[in-house]
Every structure is written in structure tokens, then in C-alpha cells.
Amino acid sequence: MNRDDILDAAAQVIRKKGFHAASMADIAETVKLQKASLYHHVSSKQEILLALLDRAIEMLTEQIAPIATRPSPADEKLREMTRVYLRLLAENADLASVLLFEHRSLEPKQHTRHIPNRDKFEALWRDVVSEGVASGTFHCPDSALTVRGLLGLLNWTVTWYRPKGELSIQDIADQYVDLLYHGLLTSK
């Protein structure tokens, strides 16, 4: 039993029960440890939550940053970032759920430490949108608002997406990007 096993189990328990309802005893039971033994690996649920958030943001940043910084047109980068992001959320549903829905459970000190990591990740998206605006590819008056809207759309997908559903995660990503690029209105 190692720390990664504990974090994997914690993500599963927190996704199922929510942070506040999940107990250290639940996590210990999932990894088949005595509760006292769990405390040899982690000191608190807050430590676990922050570690899960760090793990999620690091994983996402490691995958998205190379796409965001490559010398490709902004529209191509944004489409690929969307595909990769949704794939990662779908493949890591427990961790994604904790990242997207439980960050509000952080205590102020841990929250203050988490925010710069989240902002750095969001900046990758804002930079690509701003790059697209600068090149004339995109038109949006507020890159930050556009990114928040896009990420909100993508993030909510984890609540309803089913791997065996009608659409693959790639199909969903492409439809989202097409909606963003072309909107709902037909040309007149």
C-alpha cells in the first residue's frame, strides 16, 4: 500500500460520497487499512483533497501545455486541447469529479495554495484564445469569459457522459468546438 493507492481510493470515495460525507474510515476501508494505519500515510482529509487537486491539475497541465505552446494555428490548438481535456476527464472520472466539484471544500490556507495552479492551467486556454484573436482567427471581446464558458461546458460533461453512450468523447469534443466556432445561428 502506497500513497498513490490511498489517493486513488480517496478520489473514488469522495466522488461517490462527496468530500464532507466521506470519512477517513471510508478511505481506510477501501484500501483495506486500519484507520490508524492510514494516518501513517496522510495526516488529514484536507491533505488528501489538496493532493488530489494537485495531481489532477498537474496531469491536465502536462497534457495541455505542449499543445497550447506548439507553433500551430490557434483554432487547431483549441480543438486538440478540447479533445485531450475531455478524454482526460473521462479516463480519470474520480479524479476529475474531485477537481471540478470538491475544490470548494478546501480550507482557506489550502485554497490559497491551489488557486495559482488552477490559474496557470486556465491561462493556457486564455493564451490560445488571445492568440486566435490577435491573428484574426477568433472574434471574442473577452478571452477570459470565453475560456470560463468553454471550460464550464467541458467540465459539466463529466456529470452525464457515459463511455458506452451514443457519442464518443472525441465526438462530443468536436461538436463542442464546432458549436463554439460556428454558433447556433445559420448564415443569413
How would you describe this structure to a colleague?
The longest helix has 28 residues, at 108-135. The protein has 188 residues and is mainly α. It has helices at residues 3-17, 24-30, 35-38, 45-68, 74-91, 93-101, 108-135, 143-156, 169-182. The protein starts with a helix and ends in a 6-residue tail after the last helix. The protein has a single domain, classed as Tetracycline Repressor, domain 2. The chain is elongated. α4 runs parallel beside α7 (108-135) and α5 (74-91) runs antiparallel to α7 (108-135).
- Helical content stands at over 70%
How large is the count of helical segments? 9
Largest β-sheet summary: none
Looking at the structure, what is the overall shape?
Answer: elongated
Calculate Rg over CA atoms. 19 Å
Strand content: under 5%
Q: What structural class should be given to the helix and strand makeup?
A: mainly alpha
- Please, what is the average pLDDT? 93
Report the CATH superfamily: Tetracycline Repressor, domain 2
- Order of secondary-structure elements: HHHHHHHHH
Distance between the termini: 62 Å
CATH architecture label name: Orthogonal Bundle
Q: Per CATH, what is the topology? A: Tetracycline Repressor, domain 2
